[in-house]
Design goal:
The protein has 351 residues and is of the alpha/beta class. Helices cover 39% and strands 19% of the residues. The chain contains 9 helices and 11 strands. The strands form 3 sheets. The chain has a 6-stranded mixed beta sheet with strand order 5-6-7-3-8-9, sandwiched between helices. Helix 2 packs across helix 5, helix 2 packs parallel to helix 6 and helix 4 packs across helix 5.
Length: 351
């Protein structure tokens, strides 16, 4: 296993002799590597090698067959707010009418995480609604409270005059207990409504800032279904970043982008990584748009994993050892890599 340990930043991902499988089928084995805070890491390899499987383990959705995997010093946890995740696929088409800002707001409120994952305890992280607090129509409780207040007013008026009106006595005796309950719930609901409004304002501000950070402020009120591939990826990135996570997991964000849009997105991610010191793992097939920005490569192929600096991993010697067949890594005049000798390698693709 090849690793690069020049950084003094703390380790945020540590894998030790990791083996992963689906049922009886082993995907890869004997993976030992570290990823440090603020590193930009490409996860590459051929289709079906197990790149997304690594993400599933980091997200707490799958456990290794053997070995250990720690993230932020502990076991991976489903729904961790410390991780921002952009999945490989989104169900977005021309009929998707949700506005971009609303999608990012959902990420800020943590009512969804990635593709609708629940929180760690399986509950909903959204702010409680008025109906969930009252268990029914709030008008019922407020109406009963109003009747109770009226009864109390009549009673106190009578006490001030030295007499208690019969109507006041009846209301006092029969309705005050219910009125007290209704008044208590009504005031609680009012307090929650105000809290919800303040939270909504904070979420709106966070969503606006996240969109601005990825250069997508002008897309805030556009429908997702009307956006281009590059615009969509910016919005998805804003959604992942809105909670200021410590780690980003980006699963093939370049797959449907042309070369220019792909490089623009990579430059944007690199700026976010460096300015916020966010550990970022990005799954890709083509290493070339990324290679100038990377601190490390995790190359998964042939049931094994090689990891280290790009100039260490992306060599004929290392990849020949990984694939167990002769592999040649060529570099053109512009620094682009071509990997020759693997079944999946075509043109400039690394697997």
């Amino acid at each position: 296993m090849l690793t690069s340990e020049a950084s003094t930043e703390p380790v945020v991902i540590r894998a030790d002799r990791l083996e992963v499988a689906y049922g009886d089928k082993r995907v890869w084995r004997d993976a030992t590597f570290d990823v440090r805070r603020g590193e930009f890491v490409a996860v590459i390899g051929p289709n079906g090698a197990g790149k997304t499987t690594l993400f599933r383990m980091l997200l707490g959705l799958q456990r290794p067959r053997s070995g250990s995997l720690t993230i932020f010093g502990g076991r991976p946890r489903r729904g961790s707010p410390r991780i921002g995740y952009v999945p490989q696929r989104h169900n977005i088409d021309s009929e998707t009418h949700i506005e971009c800002e609303n999608l990012v707001r959902m990420g800020a409120s943590q009512s969804r995480w990635g593709p609708g994952f629940a929180s760690e305890d399986g509950g909903d992280r959204s702010v409680p609604t008025l109906r969930s607090v009252t268990g029914g129509s709030p008008r019922l409780f407020l109406g009963v409270a109003a009747v109770g207040v009226a009864g109390l007013a009549l009673t106190f008026t009578g006490l001030a005059r030295g007499t208690v009106p019969p109507l006041g006595s009846m209301i006092l005796a029969r309705f005050v207990p219910w009125a007290a309950l209704g008044l208590m719930v009504g005031l609680t609901a009012f307090g929650l409504a105000r809290s919800r409004a303040r939270a909504g304002a904070r979420i709106g501000q966070a969503a606006s800032q996240a969109l601005a950070a990825v250069g997508a402020s002008d897309l805030a009120h556009k429908r997702l279904g009307s956006l281009s591939g590059g615009e969509l990826q910016r919005v998805f990135l804003a959604e992942a970043m809105v909670g200021n996570p410590e780690m980003l997991l980006l699963d093939e964000p370049l797959s449907n982008l042309d070369l220019r849009r792909g490089r623009e997105l990579v430059d944007l991610v690199d700026r976010l990584v460096r300015s916020r010191n966010v550990t970022t793992l990005l799954v890709a097939h083509d290493i070339n748009p990324l290679i100038q920005c990377l601190d490390k490569v995790i190359y998964i192929a042939n049931g094994k994993v090689a990891t280290g600096a790009p100039e260490v991993v992306l060599t004929s010697e290392t990849l020949s050892r990984l694939y167990e067949v002769p592999v040649e890594v060529l570099r053109d005049s512009r620094g682009n890599l071509v990997i020759v000798g693997t079944e999946e390698a075509q043109g400039g693709e690394a697997g």
